[in-house]
Structures are given as structure tokens and as C-alpha cells.
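Supplementary Methods. Inverse-folding protocol.

Structures were first reduced to a C-alpha cell string of length 106. This string, shown here, constituted the complete conditioning input.
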């Protein structure tokens, strides 16, 4: 279980970083096409960072939070895939999928 825990923490932190980067890039594009992407990336970054912290401290609520994290990561991945012509969105979608898988395994 420790290996799953470590993989989940690593995937969550990597996803949070990708989502923050993607949101920042999309904000700079300043068009309505990216508004949903920005909102989902910000939500995803926050839940991933929180999930990593809960996982690291062994919170009793980790399982429930991982389930929600996976749901938000999947939603973010789906939105970013729509904009995958942009490199940041493509990278973000991949990180979100990896994180969703790691959280689901918990």
C-alpha cells in the first residue's frame, strides 16, 4: 500500500503543477474558449494539492478525497483534450489522467 500512496502523492503533485501552468497559459490567451479550461485547471490543482497532503498525513478522509480528486481530474482531462492543440493543455490532460488513475487505485 505504501507504493500506491507514494505514487498517488507524486501524481497529485505533478498534476497540480501542470494544472497551474495550464491555467496560467490559458489566462494569457485571453479568450472565452479557454474559460472552462481555466476554471477546471484551478479546481484540479487545488484538489490535487489537498489530496497529496491528506495522503501524506494518513487522513481518515483520504479515500473520499481521492475519489473526488479522480472525478475532477477526469473532468479537467476531458476539457484539456478539447484544446490539445496547445501543448500545455495536452500535457495537463496527460497529468490529469495519470493522477485520476493513481487516485482511483487508492
Amino acid at each position: 500500500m505504501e507504493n500506491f500512496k507514494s505514487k498517488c502523492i507524486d501524481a497529485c503533485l505533478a498534476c497540480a503543477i501542470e494544472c497551474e501552468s495550464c491555467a496560467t497559459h490559458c489566462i494569457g490567451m485571453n479568450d472565452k474558449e479557454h474559460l472552462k479550461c481555466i476554471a477546471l485547471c484551478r479546481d484540479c490543482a487545488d484538489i490535487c494539492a489537498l489530496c497529496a497532503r491528506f495522503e501524506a498525513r494518513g487522513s481518515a478522509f483520504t479515500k473520499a478525497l481521492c475519489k473526488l480528486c479522480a472525478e475532477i481530474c477526469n473532468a479537467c482531462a476531458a476539457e484539456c483534450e478539447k484544446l490539445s492543440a496547445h501543448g500545455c493543455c495536452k500535457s495537463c490532460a496527460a497529468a490529469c489522467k495519470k493522477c485520476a488513475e493513481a487516485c482511483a487505485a487508492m
